[in-house]
Amino acid sequence: MPLTLSTYLANGRADVATLIGELAAAAQELAGLVSRGAVSAEPVGETANGGGDVQKALDVAADRIFSKAARQAPVAFYGSEEQDGAVALNANGTLALAIDPLDGSSNIETNVSIGTIFSILPLTVDGSDVFCQPGNRQLAAGYFIYGPQLLLVVSLGQGTQVFCHNPDTGEFLQTIERMQIPEKAKEFSVNASNRRYWQEPVLRYIEDCEAGTDGPRGRNFNMRWVASAVADAYRIFLRGGIYLYPGDRRDGYADGRIRLVYEANPIAFLAEQAGGAGTNGQQRLLDIVPEKLHQRTPIVFGSREEVMEMGRYFAKA
Ligand SMILES: O=P(O)(O)OC[C@H]1O[C@](O)(COP(=O)(O)O)[C@@H](O)[C@@H]1O
Ligand SMILES: [Mg+2]
Ligand SMILES: [Mg+2]
Description:
Elements: H1 5-9, H2 14-36, E1 46-48, E2 54-56, H3 57-71, E3 75-80, E4 87-88, E5 95-103, E6 114-122, E7 140-146, E8 150-155, E9 160-166, E10 171-176, E11 187-189, H4 200-210, E12 222-223, H5 229-239, E13 242-245, H6 260-273, E14 277-279, E15 299-302, H7 304-316
Parallel strand pairs: 3-5, 11-12, 11-13
Antiparallel strand pairs: 1-2, 3-4, 5-6, 6-7, 7-8, 8-9, 9-10, 13-15, 14-15
Bound molecules: 1,6-di-O-phosphono-beta-D-fructofuranose and magnesium ion (2 copies).
The site of one magnesium ion has 6 residues, from β5.
């Protein structure tokens, strides 16, 4: 009989277990909205969020659902992509929750997988900004995927586990125990339409991958780009591969697009816990001390060997 999420969580900290339990219930609610699409009762429309991105109705609904979940758990501070700053919640809370309530927003109407990414941090002892702690302080991290299956990829710092939601019972059941990202990559994920804006090391790395058996890498690479980091990450975690969202020369993209605190850090934590790696091209993501909640970072994650190989292109530059 597969392990249930609640049984698994019972082995860890009680506050973290309560929070992840609430997040899992919220994810089921959001999955219901996602599956109803245009026939749901939710309003449609677009505004701008704190990060300057277009905010869709489902971004707003997701933020509402997950902030409610956080309120029902011992969360003292809630930091969301969809809010300008950190929000103080429960005075007696012991945790901080950083969240991308809806990842892959550009895919909402296209019926492609989207998700929710979360990072759980301890409170700081000196009262400094709780969301400016490096990712290596995360107590837990994970992401939900709203796709053909509702999946949870989660780590409490003892390996990365996968749970699948069973709609018949409402339970999340473990489908992968201590997942291991294959060491060798045969696929890269990058938005190649930005090629003309890339820095030299990124350009040379991708060109060498594309050269396949004729080039210095001596083997062929496939390319995939879902434009939902959760879906690209899950495929890479399963099959091996590398994801890059580097800084580029477009206005506002010097540090790429991905947010350090609630996208890059949780994904890097999960990748490392699954034997993979996550860097900004030159430095381990989890060691970067964030300066603000919505800070962007270049990101490279996936199969350890490949992430290190990519880093050598930066080191040589
Ligand atoms: O549209 P682009 O530039 O290819 O960027 C796609 C990337 O941006 C993201 O959608 C950012 O997430 P949001 O949808 O939460 O802003 C990633 O999930 C994805 O990998
Ligand atoms: Mg996102
Ligand atoms: Mg988002």
